[in-house]
Design goal:
With 308 residues, this protein is α/β, with parallel strands linked by helices. It folds into two domains: 257 residues, 3-Layer(aba) Sandwich (Rossmann fold); 36 residues, no CATH class. It is built from ten helices and ten strands. It has a six-stranded mixed beta sheet, with helices on both faces. Strands 1-2 form a two-stranded antiparallel sheet. Strand 8 and strand 9 form a beta hairpin. Helix 4 packs antiparallel against helix 5. The N terminus is likely disordered.
Length: 308
């Protein structure tokens, strides 16, 4: 199926094919609404999630009962895509499905999620952000709104040359704070970012993520990167020109001279991001875009559906 999808720029076709060919086999959504009302108890069955066991009733009866709920409202979801220029690395993967770059992965993943939300009658919106809010849609659940969001996502898939990329910074912490302040209802917040910020801004980034959780939002953080180049720093030992995609700063050096220090600094930052995600009860999903969409997004949705 995925070979057939490859090469299509029509996100509506892509999302429908993936959902009908894979997600419907899950039998239940990996996402659920937040506002629920208790309905009744039923006996616990092997394989049920333990999260809804009524432990007080167990203490009185010595039997396991599970709480059942009736949903009062549908889910509200905010898709947040970091569209700072570093998200377009590697530029040669722009628009491709099988080996995307970071922004392409975010666009395809968001299209799949939008299709899921439409089928669940949930409301959703899209925000593009970096050093500022570059775009913010309404939060709606109609098919017309779905087509509007698909159109915005398809713009992110348009092939682009490195020399023509608009320079957008990654001072994302203040922007995430602003986004959190604009959300007045409890929501599912799904963030796609490479988290490439100045080292002096790491704590500010962690604080912004904590702000979202403090507002009672459920937060999913898709941490996107190209493992071969951005994590492992595989550039050989020949002189290379490195160009900062956001500031256009240029430097020439032998990669092996800085590789160890670079890897250690990035490893420290990544581990800190993971630890803070655990601390704040944020679902952290590492995304090596070099693996392609099929090997990252679909296994995650399958895992999440089993846990919910």
């Amino acid at each position: 199926m995925f070979q057939e999808i490859e090469g299509y720029k029509n996100l509506e076709f892509f999302a429908r094919q993936v959902v009908e060919g894979f997600i419907t086999g899950l039998h239940k959504s990996p996402f659920h609404g937040f506002s629920v009302e208790f309905a009744e108890h039923r006996l616990y069955n092997n394989g049920d999630s333990t999260r809804n066991i009524d432990w007080k009733l167990y203490a009185r009866t010595d039997k396991l009962f599970v709480k059942r709920f009736e949903e009062e409202t549908n889910l509200r979801c905010h898709l947040l895509i970091d569209d700072s220029t570093s998200m377009y690395f590697p530029v040669e993967g722009q628009g491709k499905f099988d080996k995307p770059n970071k922004i392409t992965f975010a666009a395809y993943a968001s299209a799949l999620l939008v299709e899921l939300f439409v089928r669940q009658r949930d409301a959703f919106g899209l925000t593009l952000f970096g050093d500022d809010i570059h775009l913010q849609s309404d939060v709606r659940g109609s098919t017309a709104h779905q087509r509007h969001i698909f159109g915005l996502l398809e713009q992110l898939l348009a092939p682009v040359e490195a020399s023509k990329l608009e320079r957008k910074g990654s001072n994302i912490a203040p922007t995430l704070h602003l986004i959190a302040e604009k959300m007045h209802r409890r929501s599912l917040v799904i963030i796609f970012t490479d988290a490439f910020v100045d080292p002096t801004q790491h704590e500010a980034l962690f604080d912004a993520l904590r702000h979202l959780r403090h507002c009672k939002h459920e937060v999913l953080l898709f941490h996107t990167y190209d493992r071969d180049k951005e994590l492992d720093f595989n550039f050989g030992n020949r002189p290379c020109h490195f160009i900062d995609m956001e500031s256009d700063t240029r430097i020439k050096l032998f990669p092996n001279e800085v590789a160890d220090a670079y890897r250690e600094q990035l490893r420290t930052m990544t581990e800190a991001l993971k630890q803070h995600a655990v601390q704040y009860h944020i679902d952290y999903i590492p995304v090596d875009v070099g693996l392609g969409f099929e090997q990252v997004m679909l296994p995650y949705l399958l895992k999440r559906s089993r846990h919910h």
